[in-house]
Structures are given as C-alpha cells and as structure tokens.
Amino acid sequence: MVILGLGTNLGDREQTLRQAVLELKALLSQVICSPVYESPALLPETAPKDWDMPFLNMAVRGESTFTPKALLAEIQALERKLGREKRGHWSPREIDIDILACDGVIINEPTLTVPHQALLKRDFALIPLADIVPEWVYPGRDGKMAHELATQMASQLKRTDLVIA
Ligand code: PH2
Ligand code: MG
Ligand code: MG
Q1: SS3 sequence of 23-59
Q2: pLDDT at site 142
Q3: In a domain, 124, yes or no
Q4: Engineered SS bond to 115: which of 3, 42, 75, 101, CB 3.0-4.6 Å?
Q5: Distance from the CA of 96 to the center of ligand 2, in angstroms?
Q6: Ligand 1 centroid to 6 CA: how many Å?
Q7: Would the CB of 41 count as within 6 Å of ligand 1?
C-alpha cells in the first residue's frame, strides 16, 4: 500500500484534485480517497505576501506495482501534466503530490524520503492520512497509530464538503 498526499493552492483547486485522482486511478489499484481539507498555506516567514493562498489537501491510498522511485517519477510526470511548473520552493502550485508512506518502508535518499520528512509535523498531511489508514504505524518509531498521532495534533484544518472518490 502506498499513501500519497495531494495539495493545491493555485488555479481551479477542486477540478485539479478531481483530475489528479482520476489519473492516479490509472497508476494504482484499490484507490481510496480521504476527505478534502482547507488550510492556510504553511510558509517560511520570508515568503512573499502573495504566496499566502489557501490550500486544499487530501490523501489517497492505493496498491502499487511500482518501486517507490518509479512511482515518484510517475507522480512527477502527473504534476507536470496537471500544469505544475518549476517555480520557487514553497511557491503556489497547481498540484503537489508527495509520497507520504509506503507500508513500513523507510527510504532516506537525496531524491526521496519515505515516510515524508515532515509527515508528523503537518496536520494537512497526517490528518487525511489518518482518515484513510487509521492503523498505520510510523516505521521505526514508538508504535503509535496514525489516528492517535492525528488526534493529539493541534490543527487549523477545515474539512470541506467536497467528495472526491
Ligand atoms: N505544502 C507546502 C507548503 N505549505 N501549506 C498547506 N496548508 N498545505 C500544503 O500542502 C502545503 C503548505 C509545500 O509542499
Ligand atoms: Mg512535492
Ligand atoms: Mg509537499
């Protein structure tokens, strides 16, 4: 099982999430989608004011026959197909698709870190993950399940009414 985090704060955010999920269904089987959440952009203090645009975030899980690196290449191609351009780090984007976790896999390489390096610090990643894989356990940690970690987390996420399945 692989769990992806999707985020968008530029363009038609809902339409982009719908298109992304449709395309992910061609890459993954048994796809399950979390609710969609809205939150202010988490930004470095030095970020330009006009980067402060609210995000929609969700998580998607599925079964993959790709290696994690091959899957990363596929989702990066999908980001480009959905209109993402190379802009500055943290700048607004039509779509960001990150590998949040792959079962109990741990990868620490320059091009890929799994679980995602900020997963436990970011409500917009951990909370939707916990919605769809509540029993997921961070590999190599103290064994707390995702739903326990998510409940303990301070969060400004707002759950939207959008249904993407
Ligand atoms: N992604 C970022 C930077 N800041 N803020 C929110 N709310 N949601 C995101 O997905 C997000 C962010 C870089 O990937
Ligand atoms: Mg990314
Ligand atoms: Mg990201």
Answers
A1: HHHHHCEEEEECCCEEECCCCCCCCCHHHCCCEEEEE
A2: 77
A3: yes
A4: 101
A5: 5
A6: 9
A7: yes
